[in-house]
What we know:
Aldehyde Dehydrogenase, Chain A, domain 2
Amino acid sequence: xxxxxxxxxxxxxxxxxxxxxxxxxxxxxxxxxxxxxxxxxxxxxxxxxxxxxxxxxxxxxxxxxxxxxxxxxxxxxxxxxxxxxxxxxxxxxxxxxxxxxxxxxxxxxxxxxxxxxxxxxxxxxxxxxxxxxxxxxxxxxxxxxxxxxxxxxxxxxxxxxxxxxxxxxxxxxxxxxxxxxxxxxxxxxxxxxxxxxxxxxxxxxxxxxxxxxxxxxxxxxxxxxxxxxxxxxxxxxxxxxxxxxxxxxxxxxxxxxxxxxxxxxxxxxxxxxxxxxxxxxxxxxxxxxxxxxxxxxxxxxxxxxxxxxxxxxxxxxxxxxxxxxxxxxxxxxxxxxxxxxxxxxxxxxxxxxxxxxxxxxxxxxxxxxxxxxxxxxxxxxxxxxxxxxxxxxxxxxxxxxxxxxxxxxxxxxxxxxxx
Length: 419
């Protein structure tokens, strides 16, 4: 069977299974998730053995330390995967939730009910745990899932998938509800993206290049974020000790992720007092600073010149752009102009200014006095996430169980006809 026919066959199986999934009760879904969680831990030796094949290939190809770290499975990470499945099982099932009831003058009773999307395709890179997280979220929300991981984690993904799928055998969930595309040929993605009659949504997880490729080539609706150019704005009325703590966390705690801060904006009224020591602390931690003219005037040593390109850049590294702004209005204008509508925060004691920032910044997640690093399905109490969306239609921010559902209307009559 050629690749095109193989992908089509997988999608048809998933589509058929999706209709069955919509009828599966919460208890049956939770039981399978708990069994999957136990099976991952019980077979951790097998997982580590298969993961070693990916790590060996990564070594030959001289992958970066950061990528190797994302690829690596060990007992703790397997335990974390298992716990993620358990947490998803504990979450409230969104399927069947009554969203609204309308009684019309003609006697019609209209109910708005939450339902699964159907078939969810997930295309991802690097992290093997995505296989477990996304499979769990799709099953709990009543969807069928087609998973397509990257070649760098192929052995790990296949091993995790094999364990998960084995737990469907003696359950009410159809075996075809979980599908994995094992081909590492990029043509497989092309073929999948054509199947708009069989898949309901595509979620790409990975770097900007992958996400743009999927968005540009898909005939299926895509839920995405291209990049995370996230900001921290230190307002004139900020608690500067709090600001320092938030900045250090937002930039340094894990710089290679989409919710890490990439640009620091500081109000001119506090810049002279705040920036020299703040930048010195960042530099001591190994962070390169690229500043505007005002920043370079205040801090003479070690600050490179920020260009227009820097304000748009997601570094995913220990590099930070810094700009001094005149007021909150200029900060908001900068964020809405150069940001990626992902996650942005203001540090201030002024409640009115905080609310103005919340209202005016056009991002999926807008914070007051907190690190941008909390934009995460687990941190929001969603159990995990399929991805983060900066789109405005259907879902925005961390996409978890509720984001994997839509709704339909159920209309009850007693013989009404329209005149």
